[in-house]
Amino acid sequence: MRITPDNIEHEERLVWECDPSGFEYVRQRLEICGTRVKGVPFNGRGERVGYAILAPYAPRIRKGTWERRVFFVRSNDRSQHPRSAGPYDWTAPREAVDPRTLSAGVVGEITSRAWGAPVS
């Protein structure tokens, strides 16, 4: 599912499990979980580096579940192998955003820093 301002409008704050400034980009996606506040279980490949906490009034998507944003990196991402010629040396995955452009309720942007080269 594509992340839009509408599906993250109830975010209250972002929690980072490590310093986001160490990443040129992070990947983001929505996860379904049974809590608005505790850590978001990450059901994908990679390592979770952050997640969103929802406001108390955030609507459920189904009984007892909420949709929350999670931020992660994978083993083949530039931050994990800064000196190798991996697949994202001069590009970024489609779900990547510069963590400096993220805040609660803000989708984030791909920047030249995140892309690894000037964005055309």
Q: Tell me the helix content.
A: under 10%
C-alpha Rg (nearest Å): 14 Å
Estimated share of beta-strand residues: 25-35%
Structural class: mainly beta
Textual characterization of the structure:
There is one protein chain. The longest helix is centred in the last third of the chain and has 4 residues, at 112-115. With 120 residues, the chain is mainly beta. It has one helix spanning 112-115, and strands at 11-16, 26-33, 47-54, 66-73, 96-97. The chain starts with 10 loop residues before the first strand and ends in a 5-residue tail after the last helix. A five-stranded antiparallel sheet has the order 1-3-4-2-5, with no helix packed on it. The protein is 3% helix and 27% strand. The protein has one domain (5-115). The chain is elongated. It is built from one helix and five strands; from the N terminus they run E-E-E-E-E-H.
Search tags:
five-stranded antiparallel β-sheet; elongated; mainly beta; 1 helix; 120 residues; 5 strands; single chain; 3% helix
Task: Present the secondary structure layout.
Blueprint: E1 11-16, E2 26-33, E3 47-54, E4 66-73, E5 96-97, H1 112-115
Antiparallel strand pairs: 1-3, 2-4, 2-5, 3-4
